[in-house]
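During the reporting period the student researcher (J.K.) took over the structure-prediction task from the postdoctoral fellow and processed the backlog of single-chain submissions. One of the processed entries is reproduced below for the supervisory committee.
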Amino acid sequence: MVAPKAFIIEDTGLNAFAVGKPGSSAVAVTTGLLAKLNRAELEGVVAHEVSHIKNYDSRLGALIVVMVGLIALLSELGLRSAFWGRRGSGRGGGGAMVLLIGLAIMVLAPIAAQAVRLAISRQREYLADATGAQLTRYPEGLASALEKIKGNANVARASDATAPLYIANPLSFSGFFSTHPPIDERIRRLRAM
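J.K. obtained the following structure tokens:
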């Protein structure tokens, strides 16, 4: 594997991310991360990020985003055609039930697709943790780094679009709608290896 290009982000937040595929990739770490982590912890974080590259997570993430967008687009088209196509048709009550079922599917399909996207993203984080621990042969390095990152991961220029790339959610929200699993659970799994 060709070594990824390395970049440093001027930010006090403790975070890192990787993009690309083997042979054409980059890893970026914040200055805050470089200042607060020891060598073993930094190796764990970089191994986690290299694992995303090795596992083709950028490609998978892009494919999932396209699929979720396509489902949302098809739902929107179906909703609009159902609404505008029914005007003036003059049909009776039998079609109303079909219309309601269709509307429910069109509203729920994008929500379900987004939930699947988030679940896949969280599982890929667990996979990158495990693969990174395998690369370094020292899971404690990444576990210790995640303890330091927890609560300090905010990055000033992060957005909803870039949040899934980071090792920890760089935005202040978490929970069901987060692209990352809970850090405490990630630490627990690493220490159980």
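The committee noted the following: The longest helix spans residues 94-136.
J.K. will present the remaining backlog at the next meeting.
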